[in-house]
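User: Okay, second chain of the day. Same drill as before: sequence in, structure tokens out.
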Amino acid sequence: MGTLKGKTVFITGGSRGIGRAIALRAARDGANIVIAAKTASAHPKLPGTIYTVADEVRQAGGQALACVVDIRFEDQIQEAVQKAVNMFGGIDILVNNASAISLTGTLETTMKKYDLMDSINARGTFLCSKICLPYLLKSENPHILNISPPLNMRPLFFEAHCAYTMAKYGMSLCVLGMAAEFEEQGVAVNALWPRTAIWTAATKENGISASQCRKVDIMSDAAYIILTRPSRKFTGNFCVDDDLLYSEGVTNFDKYRISSDGALAMDFFLNETLDDFTERIAREQSTPKSKI
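Assistant: Same drill. Structure tokens below.
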């Protein structure tokens, strides 16, 4: 496994939650972190701003650049990318983490909310990738990582929140298309998705309790694995956090739980349940390996 020391990582939506966790994990290697998010001042109910995360990044051992960015606006992304290039000399990694969610049915979804999800999730991911790619193409090990799900076309995952699924799958379609488009040029484009709910402000707002969630650390540890792999050998993958960690030898995921009480809530878009996954790794661990 490689290191992110000296690499410049541009993270959208990095002021809290999964984006912040990925930033701090990379900072421990001595990476340069660009925190591109809207939160410049403290929210009365939500902790964290781009500036507090920048301070945390420095304390963790990395360098930081905090940029006020609403990824719906091209000029704001371009300005932040230029600041990053001026300060750090280029961009090696883009993490498309910023996302909007509304778990509403068709009749309950206002077009304002539809446009917000589409412009941040699908359009914002495409736009950030487009603007960062000229610099990623100059990197030795360039990666784009989208926090988005596998493209699972079961009606089950559309019927309750069609607009959200369409917007989120837009991020995953960027993985499908861009991984193929830039494979020969060595830019890795992958997706990462959690098997269970992750304890963030978004899950709390949607009525999920902490005991049903895993910590953000499981996503940042999985992201680190992806971002340190050779970009020419690992691209076009739709990774699930615990399955990816299992591929690196992790078999006990208890340390990622918020609480040992209650059952973990499954995230959307996955066919293999947590019970299925747990049973699968138990079978594989108990099966003697061939000596041939």
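The chain has a mean pLDDT of 95.

User: Thanks, on to the next one.
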